[in-house]
Design goal:
The protein contains two helices and seven strands, in the order βββββββαα. With 139 residues, the chain is an alpha+beta fold.
Amino acid sequence: MSNWVSPGVDKSTAATLEFANGLVAQISCSFGTAVHRFALIAGARGIIETNYFNNPPTDRPATMQIRRGTSWEAAHRPESLCEPPMNGFLAEAESFCDLINRGIRHWRGATPMESLDIARMIDAVKRSVRTGGAAQVRS
């Protein structure tokens, strides 16, 4: 589902992803809200929560909370994702520069296969919101 600013330009999108192995994911994104980024990954043995920006404030690093166990009493343990705090967009650009100048072994981003998988998923979400129906990821 999407809210459109004009034909072909979405202001916000929400989607449910169903995987062949039975896993389900829900995603949403919007240009019409305050800057935020949040992910919750819940599994049979615990939870991972992130709440960070691609460009976190310089006074605190991006962190995630890990909870091992399924009870309400299971403790959350914070873990820093990047020290010192840095602009994620700058880190991506610097990593790409290293790839070009120093070769593939210096690349810290998505693998070529992960990049293709991400592009295929985005394409399927786009087809789904435009048709109003389910869309299969094409390989």
